[in-house]
Amino acid sequence: MSPVEIACDESGSEGENLVGGETDVFAHAGVGLTPEAARACVREIRARIGSPAEEYKANHLLRAKHRPVLEWLLDPGGPLAGHGHVHLTDKTFFAVRAAVTLLTEDGTDEMARTLHRAGPAAFGAERWAYFLAAFTSVLRLRPRRGVTTSPAEFFALAGELAVVPGEAGEIVGRLEEGAARVADYRVRLATDPGLIPVLDPLVPAVVHTVRHFSAGGTPVAVVHDEQLALTGERVLQLKATLGHRLAGVRFVDSRSDARVQVADFLAGVARRIASDALNGRGDPRLTALLKSFVDTESVWNAVSS
Q1: Ordered domains of the chain (ranges, CATH)
Q2: Strands (DSSP E) along the chain, which ranges?
Q3: Which of 38, 190, 216, 285 could link 258 by a cystine bridge, Cβ 3.0 to 4.6 Å?
Q4: Between 10 and 57, whose confidence is greater?
Q5: Angle at the Cα of 289 from the Cα atoms of 203 and 255, rounded to 5 degrees
Q6: pTM for this entry
Q7: How far apart are CA 278 and CA 287, in angstroms?
Q8: How many CB atoms lie within 10 A of CB 111?
């Protein structure tokens, strides 16, 4: 069976910097348009917006004066209907879930949701943010910015929070059992170039994108905007994970492929719409329009969504 090409791009990528970065949502979009249909979509967007810019980005669509164009793009009768897919990641929840699943033997999404919901109130917003930043620090061998914490310092902090009464304190107490797992992970991170970092949401998002478009049995060939995080070793890991579903991955400059430009539009507007919703300033109309594109397995805290 011949593979179908799916064009992909992302928005909000800051690698493993999940807490305290520029963005709080990571969005990865896949678009199953033909090259001709994608070029027609880009031409129509340019005609409707009328900007002289050489390259259009999602921020053009997000301007208030271009709201009708954005609604047209996301509409059930629009050019992306049945052809677009978005995997969303709430970065803070992703970090909490990573802590729960890596540091405990039987961590669940429900446990992570409970800790994510209760943590700020139980420990104070600043202390909670520092704790999450400390966790992400110990899982990065060379943190570039923000909190820099040793494993010993992190687990000492976990011990302090574990005595706080309530569900949050109890769950953090469970995290204290994970010192050996952190040590093992850091060794593998230093020695295995193909290891997928547990804090990087990109590779899991690509996996979900491929699974979505290959659900009918047709293998997927990914055409992705240039992305340094998708190294050759990590592409091999993707192939090992996805098997026959993934026919290959190739990288292009988004300016040379209209399909990737459309994926860039979808990822960018999805990130902004989702971030607004996450922070209590969501636009009901845009949120409803985006919903039909969003992967049900997105890393999202159901309590806050």
Answers
A1: 4-88+197-291 (3.30.420), 91-191 (no CATH)
A2: 4-11, 25-31, 84-90, 220-225, 246-252
A3: 38
A4: 10
A5: 50
A6: 0.93
A7: 11
A8: 19
